[in-house]
Amino acid sequence: MRSDPHPYGIHRTLDPPGALPQLAWRLDASSPPRENEIAVDVQALAIDSASFRQLLEAEKAGKGNVADQILKIVAERGKMHNPATGSGGIFLGRVRRVGARHPAAGVLAPGERIASMVSLTLTPLQLERVGGVNRRAERVEVEGTAILFARTLYARPPSDLPEETSLAAFDVAGAPASVRRRAKPGDTVLVIGTGKAGLLSIAAAREKVGAEGRVFALDASEPATSRARSLGLADEIWTLDARDAVAVHAAFEAKTGGRLADLVVNVANVPGTEPASILCAREEGSVLFFGMATSFSAAALVAEGLAHPGTLLIGNGYVPEHAEMAIDLLRRHAALSQAFADLLEERP
Amino acid sequence: MRSDPHPYGIHRTLDPPGALPQLAWRLDASSPPRENEIAVDVQALAIDSASFRQLLEAEKAGKGNVADQILKIVAERGKMHNPATGSGGIFLGRVRRVGARHPAAGVLAPGERIASMVSLTLTPLQLERVGGVNRRAERVEVEGTAILFARTLYARPPSDLPEETSLAAFDVAGAPASVRRRAKPGDTVLVIGTGKAGLLSIAAAREKVGAEGRVFALDASEPATSRARSLGLADEIWTLDARDAVAVHAAFEAKTGGRLADLVVNVANVPGTEPASILCAREEGSVLFFGMATSFSAAALVAEGLAHPGTLLIGNGYVPEHAEMAIDLLRRHAALSQAFADLLEERP
User: Fold this and answer.
1) How far is CA A145 from CA A95, A126, A304, in A?
2) Which residues of B touch A319 (CB under 8 A)?
């Protein structure tokens, strides 16, 4: 089994052998690529928001700076799979070599810029160096090599948008695409968290619910809510901590006249926001959990404990055409592109 | 806030104050009940399957026997909330006192037998003693006091079924009720795990998909699959370890002629079964995760990594009328009742 290059990359799993790379503790990240793989010169990692936040907190707690923590995790696991949060992110790089039996042979040329559209938690990665850390963009400049399997998705950043913007949008593209799939015209949507995924979700929600629908959002950070307000797409946006379920529920219930939300989109990057998400959804409504800090058992047991029969969805990072959809949202809404640029610009 | 008896029980949260009891580290489990609470003389705990399995493993690893571990957790947290799995279970007991302002005042009488229909992870509990541990039923006899809040669900075990059977069915009633809600006539359903929740899910699936539909199931344990076969309700049941995603997927794909499942119901009690669950679902299909060993990030990232756009659902333990539905399934299918009795009977 391990000598056959598997389209899902199982041949690179070292521990435990035979597991999907996502579930492996450690991957073989060595070059050169097998005949159905692509090797990429990696230039930057966009770290998942929950992971990046955890790395920052560990740095504050004296566990080494973010760059060193990333080097250590990748050296140990052969992938940037944060053991504390279980999450990854995506990379940006240039194609080095395309295996002759990879589906993209003859399509992708060495030197082309691509971004991975699957999580770093399943992507074999070797790092020589970690350079600048952009804390606002949750992005780090690196030098290294990544491997893409036959079934691994990638995307080419478009030429009409800043590359950082595209990379950031790709990383969270599943959220707005899922919002578009789940929201219906006329719905009331509440977006919890107004980071990158939240901004795109607000835009996707507004397009889908239309003028008859209502879009609300909240975030604990005042700069984040100001930025979200600048989109001009939501009915109202509050600065509120979603961990305070009782306060958030009371405010939202009053604001909607007791109707609550048909769809709650959780894109928060902190733990403990499941109760507010569930309490703000109507009994016939749905909660779409995209924040990687979501706890399965907390969501399931809180709903049961509150006798709330709502539909609870695990946000799926893959929706067909999600990369294109996210880029199109940025193109259609100049204020959204501007907010992304603002979000990604490192303050001195 | 803490002096007002809150219908969700927030007044009993000690750490952190203001949190919902489910998310609290520690609850105030002291008697007597407040005016909108019920105090119950608890007689037995039905421990969640993932939690019970973890307690058994900890016992093997020399961390104390199951009874002592339960006493320790409850003493420390004021509730039977397994810190390793995040899950609980339900209790059976006799009503001691109903607060004058509880919705059941005048409805429930002291001495009546009731079972809690919400998780022990949010139920204030004090234990004087832990008696017999029934490893097959995942049930322990206890003496102690539990508190029900104004909004906490409970159910009366029916008189025409053995009490252990009802209690076991109540504990997992959300699974078959959700299967009934999600499956459609003619669907192909795969049930992963044939414990209590699995047996009820097989019966619910068969009733819903009808003769045109197909119901499959698998479990790693040969006694468990034999028992499930005795229902006579599934098309086929295999003894397979769901942690081996590649083997399970290959077998299921061959068996269904590549069609795969419209609905996969995960009621496994071990970690690592997310990939098999996702791989066995059609791209347009759904996976309903009910096993409390499910990892949110594993499910989300595996689907993304495999570019699988299926709908991923967090099983909600509360579905209106779920207790009655589970009991009715047992009444309609004599072989199911018999399988439950067999499953619950402690071997010497």
Assistant:
1) 10, 5, 45
2) 309
Segment A35-57, tens digit of pLDDT:
999 999 999 999 999 999 999 99
The CA-based angle B242-B57-B223, given to 5 degrees, is: 45
Amino acid at A23: L
Dist CA A121 CA A255 (whole Å)? 40
pTM above 0.90, yes or no: no
The answer to whether the CB atoms of B151 and A307 lie below 8 A apart is: yes
Burial readout A161-170 (b: 16 or more C-beta within 10 A, e: otherwise):
beebbbbbbb
Question: B224, B237 in Cβ contact below 8 A?
Answer: no
Q: Closest by alpha carbon to B301, among A294, A40, A78?
A: A294
Q: pLDDT by residue (tens digit) across B139-185?
A: 999 999 999 998 888 999 999 999 889 988 998 999 999 999 999 99
Q: Kindly report whether the peptide bond that precedes residue A16 is cis, defined as omega within 30 degrees of 0.
A: yes
CB-based contact A152:A118 (threshold 8 Å): yes
Cα distances from A48 to residues A132, A137, A180, A197, B315, in angstroms, run 17, 10, 22, 11, 25
Q: Sheet holding A311-314: strands in order across?
A: A236-239, A214-219, A188-192, A261-266, A281-289, A311-314, B311-314, B281-289, B261-266, B188-192, B214-219, B236-239
Least Cα separation, residue B298 to chain A (angstroms): 7
Alpha carbon distance B263, B215 (integer Å): 10
- State how far residue A347 is from chain B, nearest Cα, in angstroms: 31
- CA atoms of A117 and A241, how far apart (whole Å): 30
Determine the Cα–Cα distance for residues A287 and A156; give it in Å rounded to an integer.
31
User: What is the C-alpha separation between B211 and B228, in angstroms, rounded?
Assistant: 18
Residue that has been written with the tokens 């397979």 in this structure: B240
Confidence tier at A2 by pLDDT (50, 70, 90): very low
- Euclidean distance between CA atoms A309 and A117, whole angstroms: 33
Within 8 A of A311 by CB-CB distance, chain B residues are: 313, 316
Cα gap A246→A242, rounded to integer Å: 9
Q: What strands lie across the sheet with B154-155, from one edge to the other?
A: B125-134, B139-148, B38-47, B89-98, B113-116, B154-155
Question: Counting Cβ atoms within 10 Å, is residue B140 exposed (0-12), middle (13-18) or buried (19+)?
Answer: buried
- Among B1, B264, B296, B308, the strongest candidate for a mutation testing the A interface, having the largest count of A CBs within 10 A, is B296
Residue B314 has its nearest CB partner, among A87, A296, A320, at A296
Q: What is the number of other CB atoms lying within 10 angstroms of the CB of residue A155? A: 20
ipTM over 0.85: yes
